[in-house]
Amino acid sequence: MRALAAGIALMLVPLQALAFDYQLTAREIAPDTYVVPGRMEHFNRANGGNIVNTGFIVTTAGVVVIDSGPSLDYGRQLRQLIGTVTDRPVRLVLITHAHPDHYLGNGAFGDVAISALDGTRAEIAGAPPALLDGIYRLVGDAMAGTTLVPPTGVVTEGPLVVGDHGFELLALDGHTRSDLAVLDRTTGVLFAGDIAFLDRTPTTPQADIEHWLAALDRLRALPAKLVVPGHGPVAPPPQAFDQTAAYLTWLREALAAAAARGLDAAEVIDMKLPEDFAGLAVARAEFARTVAHLYPTFERSVLSDK
Fold first, then answer.
1. Sheet with strand 54-59: strands edge to edge
2. Which CATH fold would you assign to the domain 19-236?
3. Res 304: pLDDT
4. Residues 68, 113: contact at Cβ < 8 Å?
5. What is the structure's pLDDT at 306?
6. What's the pLDDT tens digit per position in 256-266?
7. Has residue 14 got a pLDDT over 90?
8. Are strands 165-172 and 179-184 parallel, antiparallel or unpaired?
């Protein structure tokens, strides 16, 4: 009877009380500027999809949030975390690009302006419902209640002033077709989105390596003092860019050489990774995914030259 009573009591607990606990923490990296670090992993049930760095800046006019995270619960808990730092309202959410770990928390910010580059907004608006099904299979109940909520506003490259902070927005591409980077000129902190990875292998489902390398060059030219990568630890430039650039350069050369030798994808996946990259988080699994994403393009290039 006690077991039955306990089971009934559990069913009566409000759903919000059963939310996945992301145990989010905010690290102040500059005055009024915070990063909320994610884990260096792939989506899984233990991390609830929390593999991404989000952040927020407290201005005199309210809080600017950089990316809303991988689920509704994450977004709610991010707002709660912000509330422990400041009583100023969230004024603006900026979404860096259309990968789901960066924007599926949008539903927690329904009363706030959510903005992105036009290409990002359009891609999120056109995302298939099956996207949520696939992520639910990976992370389970942490996705409960999550829906696809597109940004309601569009930002363009150029200056943006919010309260006492002056931002510079950069419209890039290479990691995806539309990548936003945000430089806070007031503090020198650059939120690079997934143009920069550090100690974690870059993901490439929509990558254009040449454009990505060009985007990194644009970020290098900025007067940034500290860089928040989309994944990995905060670091100063050029450290925050060098590893991603070196990996992409090696990847381009290795895949081109493999295609020229006529290797098939299975042979390429089994290639030994250079020591500099073999120790990156999720290196082997991410490289295998990259071969699936990008290697056919290199094969076609070789065939077209013959």
1. 27-30, 33-36, 54-59, 62-66, 90-94, 113-116, 153-154
2. Metallo-beta-lactamase; Chain A (3.60.15)
3. 77
4. no
5. 63
6. 999 999 999 99
7. no
8. antiparallel
